[in-house]
Amino acid sequence: MKKSEIMNKSIDHYGSGYFLIFLFTFLFISGFAAQGIQAQGNLLITPRRVVFDGKKQSQDLNLANTGKDTAKYNVSIVQYRMKEDGAFEEITTPDEGQNFADKFIRFFPRSVTLAPNEAQVVKMQLIKTDQLKPGEYRSHVYFRSVPKQTALGVEEKLKDSTAIGVKLIPIFGITIPVIIHSGESTTKVSLSDLKLNIINDTIPRLQLAFNRTGNMSVYGDLLVEYISGQGDTKQVGTVKGIAVYTPNLTRRFQMDLDNKNKVDYHNGTLKVTYSAQSDVKPEKYAEAELKLP
Asked: From CA 236, how far away is CA 232, in angstroms rounded?
């Protein structure tokens, strides 16, 4: 029997789409992201990103197996660039202005086996901090599932012995960013190129661009409010966890707005706010308005 493996590599949830490639299945941001959890298959990971900022020298990643079978995962480091549309692309050499974090972190264990409903911690630690120059360093931790191996001598029988058998083995994985901030941030963000399109006369779709300057990435939530001619305000859209990674200066983005809240998108104003995530007092990164129509 001929065996093959398949990979469905999903782009950043807030990117441009999906494409297929062989070998593994990656998940960058899922529906669990809004809850601080990464998930793929039966593996849950929290937090969804690791940021070393200030004096913190170590952090824990909490893994949990929610499935009914024992699962094994190998842990490694991979490198990505973010494209202008928010999609990720694997690389081996950093772009100009990009710094990898792998030389300044260590983690253990490098392999995790989880029984059903079992949890375990993977510890991340900073090293060689005296060699860090001011700026940002980023790599991604990759949790790759290890498929169960069929015992030697055991083969599945085909009903038709003349047929060619193909067995697809999905191999799941999750990547989360590990970011080191060294020194003071000089990063600033602005929003531009706001445009509203009504798709099929029913779906209001907002397009905009994030413009980043400075030495570090930015990460936050996007809020869209509709302001009527009479001054009434309604929330019509929100997206959590949007990043613009170094060295990117621009990220193009689009989102569908609420079309069930009796909003006249042919009049009024759209107010767009990009803010840092905080339970206490979110820092406002940028704000822009779009006059309608």
From this structure: 12
Entry pTM: 0.79
CA distance 206 to 196: 5
For 74-119, what is each residue's pLDDT tens digit? Answer: 999 999 999 999 999 999 999 999 999 999 999 999 999 999 999 9
Q: Note whether 195 and 178 are same-domain residues.
A: no
Q: Cβ–Cβ contacts within 10 Å for residue 88, how many?
A: 21
Beta-carbon contacts of 153 under 8 Å, excluding residues fewer than 6 positions away, are: none
Number of domains in the chain: 2
Q: How far, in Å, CA of 38 to CA of 67, rounded?
A: 15
What number of CA atoms fall less than 13 Å from residue 193's CA on the CB side? 10
Q: Alpha-carbon distance 214 to 191, whole Å?
A: 15
Which helix (H) or strand (E) segment holds residue 74: the answer is strand 71-78
Pair 71, 174 in one domain: yes
Q: What is the dihedral of CA 253, 259, 262, 263, to 10 degrees?
A: 20
Encoded tokens for 5:
């493996």
How many Å apart are CA 62 and CA 69, to the nearest integer? Answer: 19
DSSP string, 126-171: E--GGGPPSEEEEEEEEEEEEPPPPPTT--PPPSSTTSPPEEEEE-
Domain that holds residue 272: 188-291
Q: b vs e for 21-59, b when ≥16 Cβ sit within 10 Å of the residue's Cβ?
A: eeebbbbbbbebbeeebbbbbbbbbbebbbbbeeeeeeb
